[in-house]
Amino acid sequence: MLIEEIQEQVANSSASLRLVREEIAKAVIGQDAIISRLLIAILADGHVLIEGVPGLAKTLIVSSLASSLQASFARIQFTPDLLPADITGTLIFNQKTAEFSPKKGPIFANFILADEINRAPSKVQSALLEAMQERQVTLGDTSEPLPKPFFVMATQNPIEQEGTYPLPEAQIDRFMMKLLIRYPSMEEERRILKLMVDPKPAEIKPVLSPAQIEAMREVMHKVYMEEKLNDYILHLVMATRHPERYPRLGTLGPLINFGASPRASINLARAAKANAYLEGRAYVIPDDIKAIGKDVLRHRIVLSYEAEAEEIKSEEIIGRILDEIEVP
Fold it and tell me: What pLDDT sits at residue 162?
């Protein structure tokens, strides 16, 4: 297929996403970057982990997104007493038929908000992460497929660490992106005040259906990526594992215990294609990769004690890698 034909398909199908942004903007102010990243994750069939203090509209963002996409939404509040069956569901004995019938849990929704995922013990976290990976849940002897699209946004509070169960690195790696949500500016907060004191809540109209999202994904997969951009992604990921192989990154070696996994390469490529699609382009450019580089890599690098002692964050290391690896 010619690039011109793909460009026409991308331009036509991605235009509706502007309407999605406009609908979400009725209820959410000042989080445009987060909304863009969530749309990228949905298009690329990934999941997102968001870290931020309470009160920054995390729930509102996901519920508004679900409403604009005419999709089902479920919010799960993770607590220390939560059980896996509270998420996935269980089998209920029917006395009339003398048979067990499945009672599906809240995981069977298109959009899931896993609020404060680090509040629940590892068995519950694993139940959610298995559903994220396999896109199905086993109830008794039957495997029940999850709806399409299926998108999880998990949150964790960086302030309170007492009574929490931090996600192991292997489980964090299952999230396509880790996003850091910021405070709004004074002007944005002024607009939030005006919006929230209005007794009439914003009405978000559905713009797209789940079937249309699936069709958009089909077009997004056609976005062209040159082989040299694949090599660029591989060099970025390899630099997190073996920085000594790159002339100006040798000093990063003692700061990194473990580099990014192969999931990083896959997710960088998929997210870069989704970013190009979101911009209405039929081809990937290096800026697409740079734009989502930190979000895809920040949770995949395990820092050494030396880095922690010097208070060096993964952000700084990824920034150096993005600056030093030659752009094709």
Answer: 64
218 domain-assigned: no
The residues, any chain, with a CB within 8 Å of residue 157's CB and separated by 6 or more, are 51, 52, 53, 54, 116, 118
Q: With a cut of 80, say whether residue 314 has pLDDT above it.
A: yes
Tell me if 7 is assigned to some domain. no
HEC-encoded secondary structure of 27-89? CCCCCHHHHHHHHHHHHCCCCEEEECCCCCCHHHHHHHHHHHCCCCEEEEECCCCCCHHHHHE
Q: Is the pTM of this model over 0.70?
A: yes
Q: What token pair was written down for 292?
A: 């989502």
Query: Which two structure tokens, joined as six digits, stand for 85?
Result: 């069956």
- The domain of 279 spans 223-324
Q: Among 158, 183, 209, which residue terminates a domain?
A: 209
Residue range 114-173, pLDDT digits in tens: 988 888 888 888 888 888 888 888 887 778 899 989 999 998 877 766 667 778 777 888
Q: Residue-wise over 243-269: b if at least 16 C-beta within 10 A, else e?
A: beebeebeebeebbeebbbebbbbbbb
Contacts 24+ apart (CB under 8 A), 3-10: 3/224, 3/282, 3/283, 6/219, 6/222, 6/223, 6/224, 6/282, 7/281, 7/282, 9/219, 9/222, 9/282, 10/219, 10/220, 10/222, 10/223, 10/277, 10/280, 10/281, 10/282
